Design the sequence.
């Protein structure tokens, strides 16, 4: 990724009063999102972001040292962010600063985030990669949404990986629900 060029699949409202649209992506095979690639609905005004739905055989999200966001998002600066739903019949791997998230930066509310797969790995891997994981976050006065994560097999959260609903101001955080056949949480080299 170079400069301000965005690589990916997105619906975006920049500065105007209109809302961003919904985004839906489906493949029977594997989905790879790397080095600043995104699937997202986002708005940079008081308008609202749309919902984002992604389904695939397996999903790999890896920022790989990129300076840009890498992953699947609904983002709103002042309005509400939409819900994010991700489903994989196989594995989901989120590493090196990759994210699946619904975030809002001001008075708007973040949306619900739901991820389901046969196995899920969340691993920040390298120090300083930034947040790596599955999130609903309010950075302003709005509320964060709920987070629901399920894996029929193994769920591994290591090296600073996170599953969270967080509010960094006066808004409320949402509920977090996690279900898996096996769960491993290991701080290892995480901060």
Sequence:
């Amino acid at each position: 990724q170079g400069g301000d060029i965005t690589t990916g699949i997105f619906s975006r409202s920049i500065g105007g009063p209109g809302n961003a649209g919904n985004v839906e992506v489906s493949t029977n095979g594997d989905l790879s999102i790397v080095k600043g690639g995104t699937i997202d609905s986002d708005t940079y005004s008081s308008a609202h972001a749309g919902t984002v739905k992604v389904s695939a055989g397996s999903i790999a999200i890896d920022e790989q040292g990129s300076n840009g966001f890498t992953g699947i998002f609904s983002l709103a600066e002042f309005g509400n962010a939409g819900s994010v739903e991700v489903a994989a019949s196989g594995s989901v791997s989120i590493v090196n600063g990759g994210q699946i998230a619904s975030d809002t930066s001001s008075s708007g509310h973040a949306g619900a985030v739901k991820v389901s797969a046969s196995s899920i790995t969340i691993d920040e891997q390298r120090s300083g990669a930034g947040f790596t994981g599955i999130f609903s976050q309010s950075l302003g006065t709005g509320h964060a949404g709920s987070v629901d994560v399920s894996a029929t097999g193994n769920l591994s959260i290591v090296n600073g990986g996170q599953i969270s609903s967080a509010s960094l101001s006066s808004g409320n955080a949402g509920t977090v629900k996690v279900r898996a056949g096996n769960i491993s949480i290991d701080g290892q080299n995480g901060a």
Observations:
- DSSP finds no helices and 16 strands in the chain.
- The CA atoms of residues 141 and 169 lie 5 Å apart.
